[in-house]
Amino acid sequence: EVQLVESGGGLVQPGGSLRLSCAASGFTFRYYVMAWGRQAPGKELEWVAKITKDGGVKTYADSVKGRFTISRDNAKKTVVLQMNNLKPEDTAVYYCNFGSRWGRGTQVTVSS
Asked: How many Å apart are CA 95 and CA 38, to the nearest integer?
C-alpha cells in the first residue's frame, strides 16, 4: 500500500521555523520526483517545492523561494521541507506528493 505520512506541523510565530517530514512507503521512492504542496483556508491547493529523483535539482514557488528548502534521503525514503522566516500567509495544510498521490497533510499555522 502506498503511504505518504507527513509530520512536523504546528503553531509558530512569524519569523519562526518548522521542519516538515514525509515518510514514504509502498513504492520505489528513488524512482520519483517528490514535492510539497499546500492548501490555505478557502484557497486552492498550490505547489510549493519539488525535488528530482536524485535530489540534484530543486525548484520552488516564488512565494517561498529563499525561505524554504526541500531535501530527500532515498535510503530512508523521506522528503523534508525546512521552512524558515515563516509568514502568516504560509498558514496552510501542507501535503507530500508524488505523481497523483498525496498524503493526508500536516497543519502549519503562523500567528503571533
From this structure: 6
The three cell numbers of residue 92 are 496552510
Query: What pLDDT, in 10s, does the model give residues 69-109?
Result: 999 999 999 999 999 999 999 999 999 999 999 999 999 99
Q: What is d(CA 69, CA 20) in angstroms, rounded to the nearest whole number?
A: 10
The rounded distance, in Å, linking the Cα atoms of 57 and 103 is 22
pLDDT one-digit tens code per residue, 73-84: 999 999 999 999
Sheet containing 3-7: give its strands across: 3-7, 18-25, 78-83, 68-73
**How far apart are the C-alpha atoms of 44 and 76, rounded to whole Å?**
31
Q: Is-contact 53 71, C-beta < 8 A?
A: no
CB 71 within 8 A of CB 96: no
Q: What is the pLDDT of residues 26-66, one digit of tens each?
A: 999 999 999 999 999 999 999 999 999 999 999 999 999 99
